[in-house]
Amino acid sequence: METWLVAAMVLGCGGETTSDSGENTPEETAERGAPFTDEQLESLDPLLLQGHVDVLADEGMAGRIPGSHGHALSYAYIEAEMESIGLTPMGDGGGFTQSYSNDAVSGRLMLTEEGDVVDHETTEGVNLLGVVPGHDPSLADEYIVVMAHYDHLGVNATGDAYNGAFDNATGVSLGLELARLFMDSGFAPGRSILFFFTDDEESGFDGSLAWLDEPTVPLAQVVAGISVDPVGRPMLPDYWPLTLLGAERSEAFDLAWRTAAEWADPELDVVFVHREIIPSYLLGSDHDSFYEHETPLTALWFVNPGMSFYHTVNDTPETVDYRVLLSSGRFLAQTLGLLTTSDASFTYSGSPEMDWTHAEDVLPLLYGVEGSDELTADEREELEGYIAEVESVVESQDIDVLDNRESFFIQAGYFLLFDLPVAHPGEVPPPFPE
Known about the structure:
By secondary structure, the protein is α/β, with parallel strands linked by helices.
């Protein structure tokens, strides 16, 4: 997080340093300094972040399930915010919205406007799309897509809302405030940034799939996507990691994120995870739609793995830790600045075979958890077993020393992502501690 406003304007217009291929690589672009100054990043306003979360995760939104009154209120709120920020509409017909046909999800419930609990009913999904225009004539018609889903799970049988503050009102809030930062700070991105608030993520990524089927910008001009989902809680009360999954599917994209990690808050442990370590049938988000398209697109999953209240009625605004959300948001802002000003192509190259280097990447996460004071003796013993297994992979430089790789990562992943956070939710700090 270094100095410069003038340099930001220079970056927005390209630059003179180029690689042998004629591209400004992420490393070459980063040599000029972090895209945003500390002063600019301070305009990411925690009060505005909190305000969006409080509205979207309010009981009155009744879990934001598609087809419900609360869902309609939610997308109307997001649309109004996009307009006030000054984004260029990129939905259908010159507006911010894109509508598509969808179906009800069996077993889910919704609240009517009159307050009755009924089976889920819906016929139409609504995506929202708006653009921060690029400023480099040679790059402005290319897009970095920032996605965050705004839908959630509705209500339970007694009418209690799945408010979805962490999943994913925080991601939407951060998307809106990043858009405001890029519009108001004076920073001039070279590429355009498409802020895409997706619907129906909770029913199988239907909103992002619908957009990919009928894109509102040419897919050939989409350089990369980022799914922000979920963010804003620590894994443990004294440990705040950020996990980045899927960068390994593009060498230049991976390099850009690793380069930008130099600018991250020291308290934010940025960890790179091979997408296939967590099987998509267990957990996924809208970035997976990019991979599954007939012409796969580069994309990444941006997550704070604080799953204490995930998919429960206890996922309320009061559980959001704005220290974590701000820290993650500032890092994402810096990375977007780098992605939009380097003209590297970030070509999708497919999922590489998992090897020992990908095991090495997750060791910082394991060591970070090991450093927590929250663990019980039994939890520490189990964790040390996982660490020993991963260290054996790294020491041998052979991932096949794991007897059953998939089973190992599922077991370790569930322990880290769910068992520990649920066992140690911790005291949620005030929204803006000193």
